[in-house]
Amino acid sequence: MTTQSKDLPAPLVMSRQHPAGFSPTWRRRCKGLALPLLIIVALEIIVRIGWLPSYQMPAPSEIALTLTDLAEGALWKHIGASLIRVLLGFAIGASLALVFAAWVGLSREAEAYLEPTFAALRSIPSLAWVPLLLLWLGIDETSKIVLIAIGAFFPVYVNVVAAIRNIDRKLVEVGRIYGFSRLQLVRRILLPAALPGLFTGLRSGMSLAWMFLVAAELIAATKGLGYLLSDGRETSRPDIVLAAIIVLALLGKLSDGLLAVLERRWLSWRDTFTGQNAND
């Protein structure tokens, strides 16, 4: 006896499984929007009926109007200043982290000299660096970029070192059996095996770069999203503060999404577990 799906034409069976224009990827993205939309609707209702005072938590519609007003004014100047600082600081911090992580990961001697110092430095809070960098470098762009580089350095360093040290020893032994030189061993075995940890470190480093940016701009800046946060606080404008937080969240999500796209493209050769659906 044949099932009903076998009696249906092939295009109809496929359309029933994956409706046209609504692929599993888009369904997953729509699910990701469900919680933010629910929070927005709930906040709008709670503020409008007076359960939450608007001077503490403005309604989402009011925040949207503030974002529109800022977009017609100085918002793009603040975004541009913060974006340049994050990109420069992240590039410097991540590049240095890759160099030191490769050195420490491949050399026990380097680990003995460097790891204790790096372990102590990465436990220092971001705000603790601010007064020292201001004393050394002043309030110009250099101090902000250096602070962001410090924030991006340690997540990349820690994850890449861990990725190198967690490589299966058998892979290295196979490379030595085939007569690989040290450079070939790094290029053909160690680097591909460490790429997942590298991208984990890059994405964590980018997140901390945005956090350290706010720490720098809150204290010593005349433009940038951190400065916009500080300005909203000083003028008692929670709508401006929340608008700046939303822009920071969107920029952070966008930068993380770009790294995630690169990760999927460079690691497309992996056959890894991606989770189960609810009906699996």
TrEMBL record:
Record's bilayer topology term: Multi-pass membrane protein
Annotated keywords: Cell membrane, Membrane, Transmembrane, Transmembrane helix, Transport
Parts of the chain that traverse the membrane: 33-51, 83-106, 118-139, 145-164, 208-229, 241-262
UniProt-listed InterPro entries: MetI-like (IPR000515), MetI-like_sf (IPR035906)
An individual GO BP term: alkanesulfonate transmembrane transport
Localization in the cell: Cell membrane
Gene3D superfamilies: MetI-like
Domain ABC transmembrane type-1: 75-259
GO CC annotation: plasma membrane
Family to which this protein belongs: Belongs to the binding-protein-dependent transport system permease family.
Protein name in the entry: ABC transporter permease
Protein species of origin: Pseudomonas fluorescens
